[in-house]
Amino acid sequence: MPFHFLAIERRGSVEYVTLNRPDVRNAFNEHVIAELTAWATGAHLDPALRVVVFGGAGKVFSAGADVAWMAKMAGYTHEDNVRDATAGAEMFLAINTIPAIVIARIQGAALGGGAGLAAVCDIVVTESTAVFGFTETKLGILPAMISPYVIQKIGVSAARELFLTGARFDAARAKEIGLVHAVVAADQLDATVMQYVREALSASPTAVARAKALIPRVAGHAPVEVMAITAEAIAAQRVSPEGQDGLQAFLTKGKPGWVKDPQ
Fold first, then answer.
1. How many helices (H) and strands (E) does the chain have?
2. Is residue 17 located within the same domain as residue 108?
3. 241-252 and 205-218 helices, crossing angle to 10°
4. pTM for this predicted structure
5. Range from 64-73, 135-144, 172-181, 254-263 carrying the lowest mean pLDDT
């Protein structure tokens, strides 16, 4: 489908997805949500896709919900709100489960749903002056749809502080609580993202997909509870074509076939 609010650029097995509404600070509305969901649905079906880089056009990654959309919501019935919220929840789920490495490149601010988008990315790189916030309670609403993903990243204690107050926080705090993985100067942002892209392209695509699927299956369980799951997971990967390729490359000091340089 043609996208009006996303700019998509494909370079080999890396796809760059840019929120492209700089005039409203890349705010979310129902159309952005529909486009991101459609894009993510296609990403699940793309076996050549290995890395995704999310960005925002202009000075801000995403300021959260669009004001005009929120004004429209004020007249929604309960049923309208459930339908609207379910669409947003489906978008975050679709992005969270993409079987590739998903990187967020953040500048300016990531607020509300923008911070939620960061939470469903595997790796988050931000400029040091960026501001974050789960600001929904300041507007009388809740960070409900993003809460499962954010709590997995930052934990219950930080969620209680930041969800309840709606306070904004800086990039250093975002890294401290686990929402962000790298904080760099603005002029190092693209280079740092590219370092992660290179690392991603050196990892086996099937191993990445299976490791990503394994994490939620074992998280929160005692080791004995998931012993059979983990044993089956490694056994299946060892005998897979990429598992065999990787082991042979290790033994012969060669390079596995999946290793690629960024384009």
1. 10, 9
2. yes
3. 110
4. 0.96
5. 64-73
